[in-house]
Amino acid sequence: MNTAPTLITRHATIPVAIGAIQVGGNYPIVIQSMTNTDTADIAATVRQVADLARAGSELVRITVNHEAAAKAVPFIRDALDAQGCAVPLIGDFHFNGHRLLTDYPECAQALAKYRINPGNVGTGEKRDSQFATMIELACRYQRPVRIGVNWGSLDQELIARLMDENARAAAPREVSAVMHAAMVESAISSAERAVALGLSQDQIILSCKMSGVQDLIAVYRQLAARSDYALHLGLTEAGMGSKGIVGSTAALAVLLQEGIGDTIRVSLTPAPGEARTREVIVAQEILQTMGLRSFAPMVTACPGCGRTSSDTFQHLAQNIQGYLREQMPTWRSQYPGVETMQVAVMGCVVNGPGESKHANIGISLPGSGEHPAAPVFIDGEKVATLKGEGIAEQFKRMVDEYVDAHYGRGSAN
Predict the structure, then answer these.
(1) Is 274 annotated as a binding-site member?
(2) Is 136 labelled as part of a ligand binding site?
């Protein structure tokens, strides 16, 4: 019953291999995340990386900020491999990456990619030599590099030069426009220098992260217009809760719709005690709701109104959505294509039957009063009416049967 999504033409970029993951070109947009553990704490970092990978993060970045962290990296890689978790690890370097990669070759080899911030590799002559050292090490170990510019740590010498040039111009630009230009110039010029030092173009990913939605959109449009490098998207310091989700979605959706972006991260600030995996799920849902990728069956559910006088359908929708995500680690290997399945859980007779018919499998509660009795539709046809207190469990069994029949090895799919 699903309709084909509108195709989005991707901005042409040069593919980059990060371990077994391909980024850019015509490859699917890749989701990445980052740990917030002390990397020197091997057990905690391994546990969080594995959790993020299970949630669907295809690349995981870890902080490498001091000697203990650098020493830990190969042990983290070995522990993950022992668990069968092959997710590529990205080393996040600031200030001292040239020294850590030089002094700890096992760390350099264990990482699948290095992240370099050109604003934080040093100042003056040291900046040039330290940047060169990191690129030369990337060449030695055949590792790709993300040149990640961030407006919170932008090269101050570059900003000062561009601001001075703008002040002398006959028609000076807005300060924000100069900032945007500085971000793009930093990324492009750093990439050109990396190529001059021997790194190939298919080993470079660029990013220009900003915390303002309109700023991010403007910068990435310029970046895409000026280069064919693979691009990593993310609204930096997006914030907590709904603010972080809405901001990230608003920025990324515009760029993705324009075909810009090859990897994404949703940089949410987790609430105390909240799982780090939330950012992975949000990233998946952005891509899936846009029709760019599919990760897990999606539940269509109505918001409720005066006709839904109890919370029966809300509990049912939450129950079913949670169940589908719980099953995906098993279903993913056993039932190829199941991630595209559409499930509807509706609350009353106004739109309920119609939405349920449009889904692969849907259930519609009757609304006010909600004496538990709900028709179930499979591929547009009513097949049963569930009654009683066990509707959720009955519906789950029907979902299981549908999955096995339509996505199992013996099915036509």
Answers:
(1) no
(2) no
